[in-house]
Write a structure and sequence with these properties.
Elements lengths: L1 H13 L4 H15 L9 H14 L1 H5 L4 H6 L7 H11 L2 E10 L3 E6 L4 E6 L12 E9 L2 E4 L4 E3 L4 H13 L5 H17 L5 H4 L6
Parallel strand pairs: 3-5
Antiparallel strand pairs: 1-2, 1-4, 2-3, 4-5, 4-6
Length: 209
Amino acid sequence: MLAQMLEKLHELISGGNFEEDARRAMALFRERTGAAFDDDPSHENRMALFTEWFILDYPKESGSMSPIEFCAAGVMGISPEERRALDALRKNVHDIFEVRRAGQAELSLMAIYMDREFAVQSPDKAGMFRKGDLFEGRIVHLDGKWHLLNGFCNHQSKAGKFIKKELAAIRSRNGAGFKAFVAKLAAMSLMSERSRNIPVDEIYKNEAA
């Protein structure tokens, strides 16, 4: 049901009601996270990441009604099952995750900012990850299980120490700066992807460092 609800939301943002918002959102997303091109290996993942960010986060900043709020307000008809999926999506957990264990159908993920481990049911994605991998993503709780959404941004495992230190500092500030830091990490990931000859610690660092 999550997949169907996401597809419905995607169709909604592809229509005229959100066309202008989507253009502005894409420009802001590229400004904050880097401009990915079609030939970048992570391009497809980043487009999924953008779609989820636009549906779930962007309009909260712009002051307009988001696609998910549009549905939740009853502007368009949804079934009771879709309503449950919608409510689950609204409560998504957005974090930088470290893979603790990768099984055939389940991932054990540590949400670094939340400092909490989750058992995630993801038979279609479990094979994409290995123990120690780091990535930005979102998980959703529905029908007693945690599910991984499609948008994610991979990070170099060697950047783990830097990421964990910064997220611990953000946690001590009750989350202040979390969204901005995650966006900066996405930009660092893109730079690292394009610059394999540059040491990871020269990319993943504070600007003042």
